[in-house]
From TrEMBL:
The gene is NCER2_2. Pfam families: Ceramidase_alk, Ceramidse_alk_C. Zn(2+) binds at H122, H232, E512, Y555. Belongs to the neutral ceramidase family. Its cofactor is Zn(2+). Its EC number is 3.5.1.23. It is found in: Endoplasmic reticulum; Golgi apparatus; Secreted. It is an enzyme of class 3 (hydrolase). This is Neutral ceramidase.
Length: 751
């Protein structure tokens, strides 16, 4: 989809205002509120959540992570629900528990486990250590309180912001296809689904995006948009070490910036491109040296933010859906050694899973791939946003229950009764995917385990015969559902939830449904609602899956896909009838909602906060070298021979710096590009911009920390004089107060 370029013609302004919802006040009978808060975790030393790559530790920031929330209520005391989208790998049961405790202290029972949904985008480039089950903490050196607290606080404060912003308003919905932003990474598994079922769909992935547009009823202005679309957050590879929201976080950044630039006049100086000006800029830059490190306050970096969180900014969120088998690496998977396509059934190269890797559209540049896939979602969202005309009206409602998924009795075809199993992982899980290969020696589709791996498995926990029989045809590599030392390895109690906003129904699922699994669930729920809803629901009812919501329990494949035991099936924890159990239990929720009946709560999940263990070592880089200060420049800007930088080039500077774990600089920034305007330095870009990179490391052979700031000069940058500024914090001892510092590079010009 194409977006018309913004022009300055006055006659186009009414059209722009109409498409953005700025012409007149409107009120659809709801109270609506939008919120957003910085949730960027530790930018050094912490293992990233997603790839389970023990060597992938954070070492800087590409752009910041956010929690984005919306609340819809029928009135001040009416039925309501809150939905929070996290730039995180997935939701966490412990995060949900602690957020609810904080909200209860603020609002009583207004927000509770029934009407709060917390969903992850599934970026694989965020700090881990925030989930409570042991299997998800092995590569993160246990529980990481700093990661956990950053997320809990961001969720809480995004909801607080949305709650405080509640005003009369309207919600509009639109749908459309996103072109070439995801393909199947397990096409051979999809093909084992029934032919007549597959014939009903034109593709082996869902290409549809569903978008909500929120309009303030008092001002008539758009205040936010939330969309759901399925594609993995794996544009950034398992070798990446920069914190990133991946393609969905990028789409959100592009969307929010687009809206702001379209509704407000630009504050940037318009550049003069004359040769005389270039010469003056170069000369001016030569006169300005690095500042040296100086002390500053805890919140000083917040005043240098380009996008200040003043509770009034437009919020654009890109949420996850049935993403299980969908990869953003749309060029396909190829063998690194030969360049040929990987084996179709096993995604390996002559039996080696390590050689088979998916390629994004910007291959071999993963950041370019992230940008392209983000732009494709963003562009579709803009188009849907502009032309969203269907207004949602009707009830706000919700249903929620907890289920012990290790032992659900499932009725198939009315008389055949089967059961789910305790959680277990198979060898296909260990093989990894084309987005990120796992352990050597495994392949997707493996149905045998070597004697060596069996001995290793049994040394941890030998699976019971019941478990082995129950999980068939999956061979049990890790019997996580029967492992409880040092504490539970996998969840047993899972939440399922339905949220309703008029004719929109959101299914909150605690895992990653494959494409066909998601289609079956949506279809079953819609059929149940229509047949029991006394006309409240019909064929125009919109059903959306919100993946990775409220907790995390890995994958959900179809019964047929489970037989092939590729990665997604091998990671379907509760056995071959997992999907059937979800469909059965969601139909019960849907029927209760349609008939206005309540649900039994079910057994609550445990709070394992008291048994968490943390092995992450304390930060290093506590002091600069003798004679240096934090914020001093170690390596200044290297000026090109022509005297100035051009678009696409990367000026960079390296500063003596302490470990960024000392303070996350929440709603602040570690890096700023400043532009000289008259005699004032004005922030132009910060570490929430896609073009700016903050990197941190310990100097080789020492314990001294170094921060490098790189700026890829964007096409939108205007000619002028710039410099790079760094913010950080340090502690002399564990007991000493945190000290804050800043420093700026020498100036340079951009032509």
């Amino acid at each position: 989809m194409m977006i018309a370029k913004q022009q300055s013609c006055p006659q186009l302004l009414p059209l722009i205002f109409i498409t953005l919802g700025l012409t007149h006040a409107t009120y659809g009978g709801y109270l609506i509120g939008i919120g957003s808060y910085d949730m960027t975790g530790p930018a050094a030393d912490v293992n990233m959540m997603g790839y389970a790559n023990i060597e992938q530790h954070s070492a800087g920031i590409h752009f910041r992570l956010r929690a984005r929330a919306f609340i819809v209520a029928e009135g001040p005391q009416g039925v309501r629900f809150a939905f929070v989208n996290l730039d995180a790998g997935m939701a966490s049961q412990l995060v949900t528990i602690k957020v609810l405790e904080r909200l209860k202290s603020r609002y009583g029972n207004l927000y509770n486990e029934d009407n709060l949904a917390i969903s992850g985008t599934h970026t694989h480039a965020g700090p881990g250590g925030y989930l409570q089950y042991y299997v998800y903490s092995i590569t993160t050196a246990g529980f990481v309180p700093q990661s956990f607290d950053a997320i809990v606080t961001a969720v809480e404060l995004s909801i607080v912001q949305a709650h405080e912003n509640l005003k009369p308003g309207s919600v509009f919905i639109n749908k459309g296809d996103v072109e070439n932003a995801g393909i199947s990474r397990s096409p051979s598994a999809y093909l084992v689904n029934p032919a007549d079922e597959r014939a009903r769909y034109s593709t082996d992935v869902d290409t549809e995006m569903t978008l909500l547009k929120f309009i303030n009823g008092e001002s008539g202005k758009s205040i936010g948009a939330f969309s759901w679309f399925a594609t993995h957050g794996t544009s950034m590879s398992k070798d990446n070490r920069l914190i990133s929201g991946d393609n969905k976080g990028a789409a959100a950044r592009f969307f929010e910036d687009w809206f702001t630039s379209t509704t407000k006049s630009s504050s940037k100086v318009i550049g003069n491109t004359s040769a005389t000006l270039y010469s003056r800029l170069i000369q001016k830059a030569k006169e300005i040296n690095a500042t040296g490190g100086t002390s500053c306050g805890k919140t000083t970096s917040q005043s240098f933010k380009v996008r200040k969180n003043d509770n009034s900014r437009f919020v654009g969120a890109f949420c996850q859906s049935n993403v299980g088998d969908v990869t953003p690496n749309v060029l396909g998977a190829f063998c690194n050694d030969t360049g040929l396509p990987c084996d179709f059934n096993h995604s390996s190269c002559h039996g080696n899973n390590q050689l088979c890797l998916g390629r994004g559209p910007g291959y071999p540049d993963e950041i370019l791939s992230t940008k392209i896939i983000g732009e494709r979602q963003f562009q579709t969202a803009v188009d849907l946003f502009k032309y969203a005309k269907e207004e949602l009206t009707g009830k706000v409602d919700y249903r929620h229950t907890y289920l012990n998924f290790t032992d659900i009795e499932v009725e198939l075809d009315g008389n055949n009764v089967v059961r789910t199993c305790p959680a277990a992982l198979g060898p296909g899980f260990a093989a990894g995917t084309t987005d990120g290969p796992g352990f050597p020696g495994f392949q997707q589709g493996d149905t045998e385990i070597s004697e060596e791996w069996k001995r290793f498995r049994d040394s941890l926990k030998k699976p019971s015969k019941y478990q082995e029989d129950c999980q068939q045809p999956k061979p049990v590599l890790l019997d996580t559902g029967e492992m409880f030392k040092p504490y539970a390895w996998a969840p047993a109690i899972l939440p399922i939830q339905i949220l309703r906003l008029g004719k929109l129904v959101i299914l909150s699922v605690p895992g990653e449904f494959t494409t066909m699994a998601g289609r079956r669930l949506r279809e079953a729920v819609k059929e149940t609602l229509v047949s029991n809803g006394n006309g409240e629901f019909d064929d125009d009812t919109h059903i959306v899956i919100a993946g990775l919501t409220n907790t995390y329990s890995q994958y959900i494949a179809t019964f047929e896909e489970y037989k092939q035991q590729r990665y997604e099936a091998s990671s379907t924890l509760y056995g071959p009838h997992t999907l059937s159990a979800y469909i059965q239990e969601f139909k019960k929720l849907a029927e209760a909602m349609a008939k206005g009946e309540n649900m039994i709560k079910g057994p609550p999940p445990p709070d394992l906060s008291s048994v968490q263990q943390s092995y992450l070592i304390d930060p290093t880089g506590d002091s600069p070298p003798p004679g240096k200060k934090f914020g001093d420049v170690k390596q200044d800007i290297t000026i090109p021979k022509r005297g100035s930088f051009q678009k696409g080039e990367r000026p960079s500077a390296t500063f003596w710096s302490a470990n960024p774990r000392y303070d996350l600089l929440t709603e602040g920034t570690f890096a700023v590009v400043e532009m000289l305007q008259g005699e004032r330095w004005v922030p132009a870009y910060d570490d929430d911009d896609f073009c700016l990179y903050f990197k941190w490391k310990v100097e080789s052979g020492t314990f001294y920390g170094l921060a490098t700031i790189e700026w890829e000069v964007p096409e939108a940058a205007v000619s002028g004089v710039y410099r790079l500024r760094h913010f950080g914090s340090s502690k002399k001892t564990k007991e000493s107060p945190t000290e804050y510092f800043t420093g700026a590079s020498s100036a340079f010009s951009v032509s």
